[in-house]
Sequence to fold (373 residues):
Amino acid sequence: MKKIKVMLLFGTRPEAIKMAPLVIALKKDPRFQTLVTLTAQHREMLDQVLALFAITADYDLNLMKPGQTLCYLTASILNELKPILETESPDMILVHGDTTTAFASALSAFYEQIPIGHVEAGLRTKNKYSPYPEEMNRTLISQLGDLHFSPTPGNRDNLIREDIPERQIVITGNTVIDALLMTVKDNYQFANPILNAIDYDTHRVILLTSHRRENIGAPMVEIFSAIRELVLANPDVEVVFPMHPNPLIAETALPLLADLDRVHILTPLDYEEMSNLMGRAYLVLTDSGGIQEEAPALGKPVVVLRKETERPEAVAAGTVVMGGVEKADIIRITQHLLDDPLAYQTMAQAVNPYGDGRAALRICQAIAAYFKK
Fold:
């Protein structure tokens, strides 16, 4: 029986994390021939995830350049992918989410008339500049795609409202839960000695991440000022902040946080360290999209440091709360969770709407059904 040739294309750490369970599942399934192509939109952080999940690329475009622009990256992906797609002629390509890699890869496959499967399809904020450029990347991929793997019924409904045929949409849950459950371990020992030295039993640890383009500048001043006041007001609170390498973030964060003993500013953590830190944390404050899905799977309430979220299911389920980017709001909402055990437990025990860790298997079945295998 001729195998279905599937090529997965990704280039950033978040994509690699969420595609890793799917690479593993496809390679185990005898119905598929599986190829992995990297753009390396990110390089070092991407390689950490590949090593963790023992994934080897068949093609690596290695496109990352210092100060790369969206135009450069998009054009480079289109130019570099064309001969690969012509040579391999896959039956389907799979892209993930909302990155420039995902959009440009989908566009390249469309030009070659290759069917496109979109993992994590249907998330929307309805504001094309927030998150930027991700909202429009994701929306445009939906118009190019042939199979849409939606984490939730709400994501499916978004696609139907945009005239995507319902027969092309499959609700799968999110593969990030698959990856997380493969990674978090009891009694995990961190490679970073700072993380091993924290007393997670007597101190409440807040995991902080903030990296969104739209938050750089005044919103981050508000975010980091709020963190400063929360630490000073709560002697048992420690903050761990794996800081994104963008120098503009350091310029804002260090003057406000670097002098505080109970704020630990770290270089970015690899995925295994980050997942296990999330498992030990008391509370998560983030502007990340993926963490809004991951932390609730571990019973951790999330305060979202954004004005909008493309994950309203989490808000509706009560696993996350919108904190915004105003200092007073962030302090009020976070302090309430620190002060009110019932409010905290209500969020911690809410059912995560993003799945049960079997999303990758559902995607394999949907692709096989598409090709009548």
In short: The radius of gyration is 20 Å. The chain has a mean pLDDT of 95. DSSP finds 16 helices and 13 strands in the chain.
